[in-house]
Amino acid sequence: MSLPNEITVVAGTYDGVLVGWNNEKDVNKLEMEFASHSHEGSVRCISVLQENGIMASGGFDESIKVFDLKKKREMGETKTHGDLGAPMCSDFATESHLLVGLVSGKIAMYKRKDWAVVHILAGHEGGISCIASHPSGKLALSGGVKDGKLNLWDLTKGRLAFVHKLKINDLDKSNTTSKKPLPRVNCIRWSTDGSMYAFCYGKHVTARDAASGKDLLDIELPARPNQICFIGENDECLACACDDGSLPVLGVGVTNDEEDQEEGLIRAVMAIEGVDRLVVGDDRLKCIQRVYGKSKYLVGIANSGGYVSVVDLAGASRALNDDVNNQSGGKEDSMSDSEKDDSEEEEEEEEEDLAEFLASVRVGSGARITTISVWSSETDQEEQSGHKQGKEKKSVEEKKDTTLKENDGNMKRKWNKDIETVKLKPDEISRARVLVDKAKKRQMKKKR
């Protein structure tokens, strides 16, 4: 598997630096394209519009900067209002509007044409940790930092549609006070068709059907997931970037096996093994983003040590749907020691193929990564045919414009022929001049 034809990975750091890599020179290698000190303080969020490569970054300095990744230039910046605070998360609802979650617990909707705030949504207490807009652009989900709420917004009417309060579990068993801490929603994601959404809080990962609200997946992982994303042809898998450096891939939806349905078994595979929390250090996975393109299994990940990688998780997805290991479980007793050793070696090789690292880069000067975003595009035959069709449409429209202009010219000539010339008498001309002079004098008096 190789990288997409054109991919740009952008990372933000605690120092306010934005770093970008792309594969323009070498398709199979990421090289640094830019590094700029864009914000005073940490970079809180980065959002990219996949249709045209427009990127917006928000920082601790209460500023939002806009870039064009295609043309490789900065387009401008805007400041959040004083009472709203610094941005914490963001997402493009449509090509024309950007949603920004703020420290004050409010969501500001910016219009991309002039970057003016067109609407403010209030519904959280203590800040907004994450936000995700529906693919249709009509709905959005937001998670709170301290209020333990998952809010559904109706963007067409600009109001709160539904509030889901997360269950308070034993996140902090050492806390002996009566008030237990409310869980923080770490990440929210919609599926590509908008039929499902997933979110994580504490060590829990939940995926639900958007229409019925039924839980498709609800699991507690060994370590806290910092971010999640859908992968697969039909978004049948969920990849998680966890605090111990592990990357589990979970199966979403109902299995075909009736026994598994009755027992409520969850399909899962560990694409990258975790490390003990005491020694995890820089191996902690902080970010994961889906890479859109021909392959539906590519993700971009970043860890605390400043490493950014593009990983192919197709092997992990295949392992979820493979029942060979289950069938071979009853034959272990009849195997000899040598056969068991060979089978263990084969299993180890299969585990190595669960996650294939296609490219890896590192932020220099020991900078710590806060967030990443990925923009990719594929120049295939369909896009080329689309460009050709667009050019043909333009040529047809140009021909129509020329014919319309010619018709307008002919119409003007006909009207000129039909116009009758009228001759005025000298007395009437003198009267008209007198009336015009009087009108001018009246206007001069009014101005004075």
Percentage beta strand: 35-45%
Radius of gyration: 30 Å
Residues in helix, %: 10-25%
Number of helices: 6
For the sheet with most strands, the description reads: 4 strands, antiparallel
Q: Strand sequence of the main sheet, in spatial order?
A: 3-2-1-28
Please count the beta strands (DSSP E, at least 2 residues each): 28
SSE-based structural type: alpha+beta
Low-confidence stretches: 170-178, 327-334, 379-400, 402-422
Report how far the terminal alpha carbons are from each other: 81 Å
The residue-averaged pLDDT reads 81
List the helices and strands and how they pair.
Layout: E1 6-13, E2 17-22, E3 31-37, E4 43-49, E5 54-59, E6 63-68, E7 73-79, E8 87-92, E9 97-102, E10 106-111, E11 116-122, E12 128-133, E13 139-144, E14 149-154, E15 159-165, E16 185-190, E17 196-201, E18 204-209, E19 215-220, E20 225-231, E21 237-242, E22 247-251, H1 258-263, E23 268-272, E24 285-290, E25 298-303, E26 307-312, H2 314-320, H3 324-327, H4 337-352, E27 356-362, E28 369-377, H5 381-418, H6 426-447
Antiparallel strand pairs: 1-2, 1-28, 2-3, 4-5, 5-6, 6-7, 8-9, 9-10, 10-11, 12-13, 13-14, 14-15, 16-17, 17-18, 18-19, 20-21, 21-22, 22-23, 24-25, 25-26, 26-27
